[in-house]
Design a protein that fits this description.
Layout lengths: L1 H20 L1 E8 L9 E11 L1 E6 L6 E6 L5 E8 L18 E6 L3 H5 L3 E10 L4 E7 L5 E9 L1
Antiparallel strand pairs: 1-6, 1-9, 2-5, 2-7, 3-6, 4-5, 7-8
Length: about 150
């Protein structure tokens, strides 16, 4: 009986060690500086992470649908979209997107050497005055990926 318990505890320890050995630094994604034209509002966000995963969503507006796919391949996707027009975000609402997402970067490994850590971001904006929607592939000047100081998993 003791041998079984000892083996079980050792197995649990190895599982925890293996899970945490791939993890590394945490980063937050901010869209607070995303440029919106006066009548436009943000109606959707798509993020693709390579060699990373969604760690947490710290704040997100009501009336949005969110789908997170933390694929075991460390090719992660995040999709958020409005369920009603009133939930679309304008300039004054963008503060909600300042620290809205925390991602975890995969520690250097075979995977991350082949596919380095990267963040791709598409933002859907709508102008309700003429019902035009467009997709903006956000360049690095439109969003920030900030390392959370002192945060290691």
């Amino acid at each position: 009986m003791l041998n079984f318990v000892g083996k079980t505890l050792f197995f649990v320890f190895l599982c925890l060690l293996a899970t945490n050995s791939l993890a590394t630094d945490l980063f937050e994604i901010s869209l607070a500086k995303f440029p919106l034209k006066k009548p436009e509002r943000i109606s959707g966000i798509e993020i693709k992470l390579n060699s990373g995963r969604i760690y947490s969503i710290s704040q997100f507006p009501m009336g949005w649908n969110v789908i997170v796919n933390n694929d075991p391949s460390w090719m992660t996707s995040f999709k958020g979209s409005i369920s009603v027009g009133a939930a679309a975000l304008d300039q004054k609402d963008k503060i909600m997107l300042d620290h809205f997402l925390v991602v975890e970067k995969l520690k250097d490994s075979i995977i991350s050497k082949d596919v380095p850590f990267s963040v791709e971001l598409d933002v859907y904006v709508i102008d309700f005055s003429n019902d035009e929607e467009r997709i903006i592939h956000a360049g690095k000047e439109m969003f920030e990926v900030r390392k959370i100081k002192g945060a290691k998993k």
